[in-house]
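Work Package 3 (structural annotation) set out to generate three-dimensional models for the target panel prioritized at the project kickoff. During this period the team completed the workflow that converts sequence records into discrete structure tokens, so that structures can be stored uniformly alongside our sequence database. As a representative example, we reproduce one entry of 171 residues exactly as it appears in the project archive.
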Amino acid sequence: MAHPTLSPTPDARRATRPVSGLIALLLAATLAACSTTSPDVVQPRDAQRLSQVQDATVLSVRPVVVEGRQSGVGGMAGGVVGGIAGSGVGGYRDSAVGAVLGAVVGAVVGNAVERYGTREEAVEVLVQLRNGERRAIVQARGQEVLNAGDPVLLVTTGGRTRVQRAPEVRS
């Protein structure tokens, strides 16, 4: 007598597909959001590197939004989730159409989720160097609040510049 193989029913397999796809989409969005332009976060590649420091004075600070990235991961994950979810609709022919439509809608939604999830509230800081030159630097909002007239330091490491408040000089 042959032993029956225990396997999930087609309905049970179909029910788990959207859940596993949703997990993949959330993982992709989370990984995409790990990057930042915050002046309070130092990237590993910038640790223990000599930086160039310039004295400056803040002329103005204005809020801006750094647009999110579109690496394609969100669109791909969304397409997979949408395709799997759409394939569970109706019979054989309907499931093929549902899979295609679900993949297209999922890709669009996944792309939007990735782009929105990686957006950053930032500031554009306009500064004047001691030699009279002016520079504009965009960076994520940090813990320091900068105002016009504040003495600051421009710290440049590996081609990236951040603005931070200058420490008080004591004699």
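The mean pLDDT is 74.
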